[in-house]
Task: inverse folding
């Protein structure tokens, strides 16, 4: 992060939260952060974060999220890619695909989408540029069938989002 009044670059600690979208706030646009992001309001636009992203109980997110760890206690409409752990609390809702090394889904939560575990760091980050709407209307020809689940067909699923 560069400070406007100072020519020095300051690297933020990914273990801290430096961005808060508060309850009652509406944000439209892309967020990139070296530290953590917490969302209690509404956001439309992709989120790329070196730290953790937390969507609070009242948070509503219409975006794709790429972060170290992701905690969903509110509603996310979009694809998520957690480099480490994705946690969906009992009040959390995820409508989109997910990629993570570790997954925790509490009883009472909602998850509608596909999941891929392990090797999360190998997934093409360009996948996050597609919207949740694209996922919902994905071409059925690119979705692998349960009968014939080859590696090539599996790869096509991730090319659609």
Result:
């Amino acid at each position: 992060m560069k400070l406007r009044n100072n020519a020095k670059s300051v690297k933020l600690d990914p273990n801290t939260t430096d961005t808060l979208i508060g309850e009652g706030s509406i944000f439209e646009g892309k967020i990139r952060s070296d530290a953590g992001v917490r969302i209690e309001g509404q956001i439309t636009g992709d989120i790329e974060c070196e730290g953790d992203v937390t969507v609070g109980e009242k948070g509503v997110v219409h975006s794709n999220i790429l972060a170290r760890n992701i905690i969903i206690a509110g509603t996310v409409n979009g694809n998520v890619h957690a480099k480490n752990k994705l946690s969906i609390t009992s009040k959390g809702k995820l409508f989109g695909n997910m990629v993570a090394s570790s997954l925790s889904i509490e009883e009472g939560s909602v998850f509608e989408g596909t999941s891929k575990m392990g090797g999360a760091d190998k997934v093409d980050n360009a996948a996050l540029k597609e919207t949740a709407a694209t996922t919902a209307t994905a071409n059925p020809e690119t979705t692998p069938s349960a009968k014939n689940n080859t590696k090539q067909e599996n790869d096509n699923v991730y090319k659609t989002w």
Observations:
- The helical segments are 132-136, 151-159.
